[in-house]
């Protein structure tokens, strides 16, 4: 195991002093880490905390989630948004049970084969559950990588830079630290560079923060989402929440959504949820989950 460089040690020291207290950081259980990382996709950590605690209490291992009806899993997910993540997590649990003996796999190829698991989530499980020296690249770490390099990065280049930067034997601490650093200091519009442990080696800061910001449209860095109010995303979430209380007659869907005069939009919302396997139609009613025959 090689000693960390001066820059790496500054980051590790900063990370140890500023680490956020989040419930999934207190476990190395691969299933709980996977649940947390799926929940954290497109959702801020503070919002995830209560949902994570309830979900893992209801489904403490892959077998419990794999064997639960989809409608129950979707109800447990209510409030987090993007319900396809819950469907994919249940499917992933089923693959873990069927193909891996109920244990979340510990290799990148098998993790990437799980439904709903992409490069970031797979590497996060390897780093945070199995302690591997792999790098995770998300919107927070992506900003740091691009600004440190002083240029926009392709996905391959960003991952290569991130992998090269991980100090030997410190994958867990390093990645958690960079996630915190990106969230607290290397922010999208108001980076706080004073006291940043990467300041001395950050090409963008050393150049005087010239425009454009290299993090803009760089790999891993998220772009502003479309307006949520009145969107199809909001309608889908509202409808799934209502269906969590019981089936809904099709002719009442428009009223629930508040779109009485927009039948085409209502139909597209329903069709999208059916296509995603989140709801089905039975006897003129919209029902949460899969048909009973499944």
Describe this structure in words.
The chain has a 3-stranded antiparallel β-sheet. The N and C termini lie far apart (51 Å). Helix 2 packs antiparallel against helix 8. Among the domains are: 100 residues, Hypothetical protein, domain 2 (Endonuclease III, domain 1, Orthogonal Bundle); 57 residues, Arc Repressor Mutant, subunit A. The chain has 294 residues and is mostly helical. It is globular, with a radius of gyration of 21 Å.
Question: What layout of secondary structure does this protein have?
Answer:
Blueprint: H1 6-18, H2 30-39, H3 45-58, H4 62-66, H5 70-77, H6 84-100, H7 108-112, H8 119-128, H9 139-149, H10 155-165, H11 171-184, H12 203-206, H13 232-243, E1 248-249, H14 253-257, H15 263-275, E2 279-282, E3 285-288
Antiparallel strand pairs: 1-3, 2-3
Helix pairs in contact: 1-11, 2-3, 2-8, 9-11
- Tally of individual helices: 15
**Corresponding CATH superfamily of one domain:** Hypothetical protein, domain 2
Order of the strands making up the biggest sheet: 1-3-2
Query: What is the fold named in CATH at topology level of one domain?
Result: Endonuclease III, domain 1
**Estimated helix fraction:** 40-55%
The stretches of 5 or more residues where confidence is low (pLDDT under 50) are none
Strand content: under 5%
Name the structural class: mainly alpha
Order of H and E elements: HHHHHHHHHHHHHEHHEE
The CATH architecture of one domain can be given as Orthogonal Bundle
Work out the oligomeric state of the chains in this entry.
single chain
User: What's the shape?
Assistant: globular
Could you tell me the mean pLDDT?
92
How many E strands? Answer: 3
The major beta sheet can be summarized as: 3 strands, antiparallel
Radius of gyration: 21 Å
N/C terminus separation: 51 Å
* CATH C-level name of one domain: Mainly Alpha
